[in-house]
Design goal:
Elements lengths: L2 H4 L1 H18 L5 H16 L1 E9 L5 E7 L2 H7 L3 E2 L1 H9 L2 E3 L2 E4 L1 H4 L28 E7 L5 E10 L7 H54 L3 E6 L8 E4 L1 H7 L3 H4 L4 H4 L5 H10 L1 E8 L5 E13 L3 E11 L1 H15 L9 H9 L16 H6 L86 E10 L1 H8 L1 H17 L6 E6 L2 E9 L1 H15 L3 E2 L5 E2 L2 E9 L5 H18 L9
Antiparallel strand pairs: 1-2, 1-7, 2-3, 4-5, 5-6, 6-7, 8-9, 8-12, 10-11, 11-12, 13-15, 13-18, 14-15, 16-17
């Protein structure tokens, strides 16, 4: 029996010291101070000569965070780490003294070579029962309120030289309980302090970032805007910088009255909506206050809130008018003749090819349904000289440069017996008028086929191809030079363009050869057009130096038809032109 521990005076003294040590735990300012106070309290309040506090790290291992009672032990152990597995081995072996773990020297020798930092002084074997041996080990685990291991207090060398009795064990266990609370609170305070410091730094960074963004937004050399995203006010401008206001000729207060869709060219609304929905960039036209439009590159960034989702769009607007104009000029040069400004051979072929499909048009039987016969032909209609060939409400496909044709919807064929709907025939109407489906039986689909007008049928219209070759042009070049020849070509191009409708195409193939595409003409209409154009070319042409020259013109007329290639159609018109040229006597050809 431990008579020393049973003495009331000793117990009272120990209790007072223990109370003082616990009180000091609550005055520590930081986690490091708390840990050192815990270690010091074991030495000053509980009568051990050496104490160490091992704290669990975030990775699970335990580090020696504080040592008291021995400078040598502190130098040897402080800051060193022991693995969690080695500590769990310690806490699972030896004798259980309540929450404490005691490992006598007779068992502890197996722990001498593990990785847990430890300090032991040599000494003789115990001389009497209960004497403390230098290799004895006593641990007081520290647990959180949730039962998780927070750390371990390890003690050595009781001043009495004896192993702790019931009173000493109870005192150490009570102190460990209070120490765990103090360490947990200190860690919580440390975490809160770090969080407050981090929050303050983040707020400072946010304020600096907001100020930087404001300056970058306001003084950016190109346009920037912030717009609503989602809800009834989607796209409404919240703020626009000075550069965007100057670009569009509107004040900042005026800009807040609009959404982007109010400021974009009607043809570019679809592009705007796709860009706003997906984020990204697009090139489109925006309106100025004076009613003109400017090409811009619009780039969106969706600014999202973690909790609430997308909130608004940050839009960068860059003026690309000059670049776009240059691109359009390059595209125009690639598709137009540099001398006359007319579409060149490549553009002519593209426009003509857009009207043709590879399948010839079948000719309906005489007793076929009249509506079916109508569907196989390109309808005529009102026009400058023979009709445009466009049904009201059905824009013609591929109508580039004046090429128009009929396009039909599903309702156009619903009342045709035996034909069914386009879906029955395997076609797909996409609303463009183009043939997007594979060939179907009988050669019938929704494509507005181009056909040769029938002889003796005034109402039958087609796409006329007039091939024009100038008569006597070579002699003008030879006699007056190429400058004079160029002036003649420019004037002939002007007269040809003035002599056709706005939706017709006049192109220069090269040299003194021109081609006119005129849709919706009958055979008589095409012949009349050729005569009018020839008569427009014949009058004298004034060139440099006040000199006047004259040229004639020979025309060959062919008809575009599905199933033909562009080369075949142009070659046919060319051949007819030479037939007409040879048929006319030399005296009827006007030359310079």
């Amino acid at each position: 029996m431990d008579t020393t521990d049973s003495e009331p005076a000793v117990r009272l003294t120990t209790l007072r010291r223990l109370h003082q040590s616990v009180a000091q735990l609550n005055t520590a300012r930081s986690l490091a101070d708390t840990l050192q106070t815990v270690a010091d309290g074991v030495v000053t309040g509980l009568g051990f000569e050496i104490a160490a506090v091992n704290l669990v790290r975030p990775d699970g291992d335990l580090v020696v965070a504080a040592v008291a009672g021995s400078t040598g032990a502190e130098a040897m152990m402080a800051g060193r780490v022991g693995s969690r597995a080695s500590w769990e081995r310690r806490l699972s072996m030896g004798e259980s003294w309540g929450e404490l773990r005691f490992i006598p020297y007779t068992e502890g020798w197996v722990l001498d070579d593990d990785d847990v930092p430890q300090w032991h002084t040599p000494g003789p074997a115990p001389r009497y029962a209960g004497e403390w041996h230098p290799m004895d080990r006593l641990f007081a685990p520290l647990y959180t309120s949730d039962g998780d291991l927070l750390g371990v207090i390890s003690v050595d060398k009781p001043r009495t030289g004896r192993r702790p009795g019931a009173w000493g064990r109870e005192a150490l266990q009570m102190y460990a309980f209070q120490a765990a609370i103090a360490i947990a609170n200190a860690r919580l305070r440390a975490n809160m302090q770090r969080a407050l410091v981090r929050l303050e730094r983040e707020q400072q960074a946010l304020r600096a970032s907001e100020e930087s963004f404001r300056a970058a937004f306001e003084y950016a050399p190109s346009g920037m805007a912030i717009a609503e995203m989602g809800g009834d006010q989607h796209g409404r401008l919240i703020k626009a910088n000075d550069a965007l206001c100057r670009l569009l000729g509107r004040t900042a207060s005026m800009m807040r009255r609009y959404s982007f869709s109010d400021l974009v060219h009607p043809e570019d609304i679809g592009t705007l909506l796709r860009t706003a929905a997906e984020g990204g960039r697009a090139e489109l036209r925006m309106s100025r206050r004076d009613g003109s439009y400017v090409w811009v590159s619009l780039r969106n960034s969706v600014v999202a809130d973690v909790a609430d989702g997308p909130r608004f769009l940050l839009t960068h607007v860059e003026d690309i008018e000059e670049r776009k104009r240059h691109e359009l000029q390059l595209a125009h040069r690639a598709s137009h003749d540099s001398l006359t400004g007319l579409p060149n051979s490549a553009e002519l072929r593209a426009r003509l090819s857009a009207r043709l499909c590879e399948r010839p048009v079948a000719v309906p039987e005489p007793d076929a349904h009249p509506a079916a016969a109508h569907a196989f032909a390109t309808p005529g209609g009102p026009g400058g000289y023979g009709g445009s060939g466009v049904r009201p409400g059905h824009p013609g496909p591929g109508s580039t440069g004046g090429l128009a044709g009929a396009a039909y919807g599903p309702d156009d064929f619903a009342d045709l017996p035996g034909l069914g709907t386009p879906a029955d025939l395997g076609t797909s109407l996409d609303g463009t008028g183009f043939d997007t489906a594979p060939p179907v039986a009988g050669g019938f689909d929704h494509h507005a086929h181009v056909t040769h007008p029938q002889d003796g049928t005034p109402s039958d219209k087609g796409l006329a191809v007039l091939f024009c070759d100038l008569d006597g042009f070579k002699s003008i070049n030879d006699r007056h030079g190429h400058h004079c020849g160029d002036a003649v070509l420019i004037e002939v191009a002007r007269r040809l363009t003035a002599g056709v409708r706005d939706n017709d195409t006049v192109a220069r193939l090269g040299g003194d050869e021109f081609v006119v595409l005129a849709d919706g003409l009958g055979q008589a209409d095409a012949s009349d057009l050729a005569v009018r154009l020839r008569n427009a070319i014949i009058p004298p042409i004034r060139v440099e130096g006040g000199r006047t020259v004259r040229v004639g013109a020979s025309f060959g007329i062919s008809w575009a038809s599905c199933g033909q290639s562009v080369d075949e159609i142009l070659q046919s018109a060319d051949q007819r032109m030479y037939v007409e040229k040879r048929a006319r006597s030399k005296g009827h050809r006007r030359a310079g």
